[in-house]
Specification:
- The protein is an all-alpha fold.
- Helices cover about 80% and strands about 0% of the residues.
- The protein is built from two helices and no strands.
- The longest helix has about 40 residues.
Length: about 70
């Protein structure tokens, strides 16, 4: 789960597993609810990681342009 400081790749892999299980109808209604909650948390975690990386890259590119 994202709360234990997993990497982006680990979170994405877990999310892909959940989506696969949902698409193949492997989950009963109780599991479905729990998996959807976990998927929401993973999506939020991944979105935040991407936003942070994007911000850092833009800052680095801005710093590089200022040096030139």
């Amino acid at each position: 789960m994202a709360a234990k400081k997993e990497t982006y790749a680990e979170a994405m892999k877990r999310l892909e597993t959940i989506v696969s299980r949902i698409e193949s109808n492997e989950l009963d209604i109780d599991e479905l609810g729990e998996n959807l909650k976990e998927a929401q948390k993973l999506i939020k975690y991944c979105r935040e990681k991407l936003y942070k990386a994007d911000t850092e890259i833009k800052k680095m590119l801005g710093d590089a342009e200022a040096v030139e």
